[in-house]
Amino acid sequence: xxxxxxxxxxxxxxxxxxxxxxxxxxxxxxxxxxxxxxxxxxxxxxxxxxxxxxxxxxxxxxxxxxxxxxxxxxxxxxxxxxxxxxxxxxxxxxxxxxxxxxxxxxxxxxxxxxxxxxxxxxxxxxxxxxxxxxxxxxxxxxxxxxxxxxxxxxxxxxxxxxxxxxxxxxxxxxxxxxxxxxxxxxxxxxxxxxxxxxxxxxxxxxxxxxxxxxxxxxxxxxxxxxxxxxxxxxxxxxxxxxxxxxxxxxxxxxxxxxxxxxxxxxxxxxxxxxxxxxxxxxxxxxxxxxxxxxxxxxxxxxxxxxxxxxxxxxxxxxxxxxxxxxxxxxxxxxxxxxxxxxxxxxxxxxxxxxxxxxxxxxxxxxxxxxxxxxxxxxxxxxxxxxxxxxxxxxxxxxxxxxxxxxxxxxxxxx
Length: 414
Hints:
The two termini are 54 Å apart. Helices cover 40% and strands 24% of the residues. It is elongated and about 85 Å long. Strand 16 (366-372) and strand 17 (377-383) form a beta hairpin. Helix 1 (21-31) runs parallel beside helix 5 (152-171) and helix 8 (256-267) packs parallel to helix 13. The chain is built from 13 helices and 17 strands. By secondary structure, the protein is α/β, with parallel strands linked by helices.
């Protein structure tokens, strides 16, 4: 059961607007038993919309068009769809009267141009829009067409109220089951090399490996017939999780900062951070989690040596001997922020994010991480690729992953 999404609007072909509706629609259509096999973005050209729709009618069972149902001259979805279907368009007096009442309740007189929103394609079923002025339409034939308003709030309201149940009926009870794993500390290529022999044995299970800001996500999904169980999917998921071991930090949608926060809370520990090259990104990530005040005490953005010395207690002689970007400084920062705040764990990061400041012994991308508690103080060294923003993002993720491993090691010792 193939579905297709067509987003209409010239603004979506510019750098200033992004089509977010298709993400919501894909999730809902998957739940209804449809595989979304194509997504398109088309400008406000009736010829282009018509041509795209004619092709879609030949390849998809369900086609969802979103946008282009407003009152202005560039809202052409109704006209183009009617041309593609070779059907007439006429004013629906009930919709027109409803529009007039809606404007009157708000103290406005409806402009003549708004009458376009009462136009209905011959044979279409009207989908009431309770949160906006543009109704949707459902048109059945060899393929089913859905016309939805573009504003996300209106689109979701119309879809939930009128489209989801119809789509489920067409979907016939099929469902898409999904499983996921998230890990940190391995490159994407190594992850694939280790798990490919497993997932290649399961032709019916689709496997996707994604990398973003130092986190690798493994997604498994399988279409199941009505009444069919997910034993194969569950078995593959368990096999991959066992192979990747402790590198896996989440077996669902949890973020790395959520996992680390839960560990800190469960262990009754508190955290403080001293950040040089990331300059607050670690603290921002940790505090994105609601309730993080239970375990996060605070941090220092210690870019200058004077702040490293004055607020984090790093000896000036140590900085002079080893430099700000060094294992020794990273450990001293971790111990110092812990002492300054009274936290049970101190985490530090210091590095060269670029684009300048690098040298042969200390290139751009070199970052040191320090972690200290009442018993241990360790450091890790990494060189990250990319531009300044990429290096800072990768360092932030790696710091949280290093903290997770540190806390795990402490649990195993106790």
